[in-house]
Structure prediction request, 976 residues.
Amino acid sequence: MTPNVGVVVFPGSNCDRDAHWSFGLMGAKVRYLWHLETDLSELDAVVLPGGFAYGDYLRVGAMAAYSPVMEAVKEFAASGKFVLGVCNGFQVLCEAGLLPGALRRNDTLRFRCMPVRVRVETQDTAFTTGMWPGQVLAIPIAHFDGNYYCTQECVEQLEAERRVAFRYCDREGELTEESNPNGSVGHIAGVFNEHRNVLGMMPHPERAVDPVVGGTDGRLILTSLLSSIASAASRVPSP
Amino acid sequence: MTQVSDGQPLHISLGLTDQEYERIQQILGREPNRAELAMYSVMWSEHCSYKSSRIHLKNLPSEGPHVMVGPGEGAGVIDVDGVAVAFRIESHNHPSFVEPVQGASTGIGGVVRDVVSMGARPIALLDPLRFGPLPGDAEADASAERNRWLTAGVVSGISSYGNCIGVPTVGGETKFERSYSGNPLVNVMCVGVVPDGKIMLARAPGPGNAVLLLGSTTGRDGIGGVSVLASASFDESAETKRPSVQVGDPFTEKLLIEGSLSLIDKGLIVGIQDLGGAGLCCAASESAARAGTGMQVDLDKVPLRETGMQPFEILTSESQERMLVIVKPDLVKTAVEECERLGLRATRIGEVTDTGRLVATMGGEVVADVPAESLGDGPVYDRPYAAPAARPDPGPPAGSAPSPQEALLRLMGSANIASKRWVWEQYDYQVQLGTVVGPGRDAAVLRIPGTDARVAVVADGNGRYCELDPNLGARHSVAEAYRNLSTMGAEPVAVTNCLNFGNPEIPEVMWQFVEAVKGMGEACRTLETPIIGGNVSFYNQTMDEAIYPTPVIGMVGVVPAGVTSPAPGFVREDDAVAVLGVTAQELGGSEYERTVLGRVAGTPPALDLQAESNVGWLMREAIARGLISAAHDVSEGGLGVTLAEMCIHDGWGVELTHGCELDAPSWLFSESASRVVVGLAFQDMAELRDLAQNLGVSVQELGWVKGRSLFVQDVINVKVGDLTEAHETGFARLMGQ
Prediction:
């Protein structure tokens, strides 16, 4: 079974082609979803890629959250299907209320493009099946607004429900101050929704699937998702 | 003759001379009206007409086996293993001085549209930047704080615009010299790939075809930008020129890129030209003149962002993010619908005619009617030039020189040598997944999307050398770019140049230009790297102070299939360390003299272009054979800085002997040309020597990779960690962080 993945293209998205290419490389059947489309029926997963949707005017992700495709993505997520938001996609998911919290300006007050390391916090999700908790992945970031924030109460709830996906860390997996590139609360680099079928993350896994550019640790996330889709399909008998 | 309020004839205040005005009268057979005069003034400005440079530029080599499109189009195009690669460099110096964030932003926008107008998808940007010295620099002066503000602003402008449009910024240079305090340089190079070789040209063929304007609305921003800002020197009134700076909207630029490429891909347009300097009147007249047609434009149809705009304003506005396309009448509806689908404004504003004239109407009346060709056929000047008086020798430096080790540490943390991570971490250098080698290296290497073909790209210039000797300095700029590409294993193919100079009406400045062009031409001929396009930026001066003459060379090379670029530093203990090329006592114009001794004087190092070519051949051959584990060219800061940077890369130390007759500072810091430091396995030394001997290249074995210190017997013994600390923190400290 080849998973069907849709990559949303908002006006101003700029990692849509990269996401398309990377998921294709990992064996998915990929198509673009223009921001006006609302029929997601044949898809198993939707990717909200990085970029500057609608120019990120007003506030990052704010306008995209109200686009027609996002109405469909909300229903798609509610039906238990998978949604991955990367970078600007994470920002859109937060603005759309599919994930808690918000992404503020980096505490450095500068755009940062660099390789970072993240620690896998939760293994039992569709996005992280191929990993072990505590595993350190090298995945690049490229953002100005990646400073994850939510209230202390919310952080505690995320931790209690093990919905923190990744935390910024050093080479050894320690949460040192220098390893947090943007000031995120609790070093949080990615979070799940309540049902763990929606993941938002600032690092770009689609930029780490090719040893020639960016390394290969991002493959783990993409292949975890694709194999979860495939195994879920094999468990559910066809009608 | 129209008078303006201060009694000065209008054409004078628009930057035209009396002679030029007379020529316009002859062309038209009558007095030009206000709109026509404005059109000639921008089109005949230095920036658009190349009136002072043209007779010299025509001597540059522009042909070669890889060249598909040479100078004169939006961008030059070369053939890389069957893939058409377009590239171009532009300057946005004056706007960036007046308003650094917007100036740098719109500089990117312009050159990206040039490349898109060739039918190419932009795949990389490079930003060669020059500023006056920062606080804490050896040359810091009263402008230092302002220079820091300009640096931060320009970098932020590049970051916000380049990142948003999704084109990786993979290289460039950021350098600091006294002469740029009154006039920073912001050059931008863009590289693109033409899908399926469908190269577009800026032509308006086929009378009866429709003319569509894509993208942003037209406003009063940037009116006369090319004439008011780009073609005059600065005086105390720089602040008042702010309205001539355009404001960028990268979101619309992104839509414009996607829209233009989609129209080309679907075969909906027959011609395309971006609206840059001189706006609509430039795009309309040039594309008509090139096709031998004319154009009728209805200014009432042009979408405006403010009311009450006069015809001359609409015709010459430099509002950003606009493109002119030519569409066959039966495809107009489809083309407009495709643009609308993508969220891009597309408006039919006129049609191609067979009259040879550019006619603009507004309110049903003709407001301008001129021969299209005459706007691009501006005056050509052979400006007088004269060598300046010999520079007074400042004599030996006042203070005593620090120890070689102290000097090296100081250099490693200095503005021109320290790591520019602070700068390039603000650029998205990875988007599009093609960046095989990114910023901070001798050159960037890009994989062309959808293929395994790789190109190496670099931008280099050395204004200080050119100040001391423009001809030799320009040759050095070409040679260093050539060497940088060879060090990555790439075969250099072609050049785009950005020639930044002072006021050409000053004979000494014009002499610098003439000499630099001669030197550049000679170097490009010898190294077989034709110049397929570029840009001239004159009037880079404030009051009497001109910038260092600064030709910037953008060079593109091909990495042959199967070749892997070596690491930029030592990666294997016990490897041999050797330097290719000869080190001589050549400290004139060096980074060591500037930064450590506080002296800019003497003569730049000698340069033998044939020797440069031989070292290039040797590097490429040795890399292709897999002999080389590490390679880094020797340039600013000499052997000492090159070795230190190679140690920093992976933390390895070296044990070396100095082993020649030069005194230690000269050996370490001379910037003798045509040298590369390599690391390689000892057993491969003999093969390297054999190759080198055939080419007549000297190979000096210096020692081996060992330990965690840079050790040169009797000269230096410094921990690599200390060098790293200086190199990594130096620049952020100079930026006050």
In short: The radius of gyration of chain A is 16 Å. The longest strand of chain A covers residues 112-120.
